[in-house]
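Morning, I've got a small favour to ask if you have a moment. It would help a lot if you went through both lines with me. I owe you a coffee for this, so here goes:
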Amino acid sequence: MSESGSQNSTWSRSTWLSVVSLTFGSFALISSELPPMAVLTPMAADFGVTEGAAGQAVTLTALFAGIAAPTVALIIGRLDRKLINLVLCVLVIVSNIAVAFTSDYFVLLAARMLLGIAIGGFFALAGATVVRLVTMEDMGKGMSIVFMGLSAGLVVAPALSTLIGEALGWRAAFIAAAGSGLLALLLQAICLPSVPASSATSLSSLVGLLRRQQVRVGLAVGLLFFGGEVCGFTFMRPYLETNGRLDATAIAPVLLMLGLASLLGSAIAGVFADRVLREGFGATFLVLGIATIGLLTLSNSYVAVLAFAAAWGMAIGAGPVMTQTWMGRAAPDQLEGVGGLFLAVIQFGVTLGAIAGGIAVDIFGTSAPLYVTATCAILAAILIATQRAPDVISQTSASALAPAE
């Protein structure tokens, strides 16, 4: 079946609840990953370490997420994916509680490693789980709803963690994050049906995925997107301060606009991913490139900055949905394996983007990371334009992708 044959099917109430329970899972994960960035200074002081050392709590989380992503599917075999998701929620809760109550720096790091495993496992399995709930034809719609939790967390978590940390102390921010994990655990326990594995992932199947051209294209685009986006976003505030001459009061609405637009981008991306994947995929990165160039050339106009920040946010909200859907259609028979590879590439891209941004700023100034973002986005759009979109579903794998009851 080609992508043009995708239909806008109607979901049952139980299907909606099961997908939304995964949305709360993605929200809990991002809400647990971000607090150290918001409370880094008091957290470092409490542990008696430098801010750089405390920042390793973020680095280790990303590192272990990247390691866990391709390996979790190898380890879990044919275990029910509902059980795996519940275990991952428990890891989120345990990690946050351990951070909130420990006074030992190494326990802090170990707890953040657990969170990394939960992040890697959840997002590696998310695509396959969604397809089992809603079918491949609605994968884009399902993933857009799941990723809305991630986008909402990006908007809410940093500000909320800062407010909680100021009012109740930095440890309270992690207790709140544990509460979000508990909510996700309860919702998935109640709403998520049994999701038996259709097959187990092997090391040879992971290697085999790299031989598929459309999988390689998806991984390359993912590397360009996440590396470029992180490179620019990390240094967005310094750029607006230096080149846009904006103070913190003026920058806050820009970042809020960007965050809200990313939520909207996640919400609408599924429609395009299911109906016009190749065109929507390419347009996403073209918009990101144009918006970044706009920020670089019109930073002296506050209205223009707000408009381009909104376009930037929509693109970075839509990008993960589009990329995950492309990867799923490129390997419908190996959804968990390709999901693990995809998340490993994300983490590598995030690390590479942050390093490249830091080097670019030090050598060329605060505008340099945005040039990297624009270049990566345009290269991704060109790469997609040269490819044929994967089919919605292959005939050989159709029987393996029946929705879970």
Observations:
- Confidence is low (pLDDT under 50) at residues 1-8, 394-405.
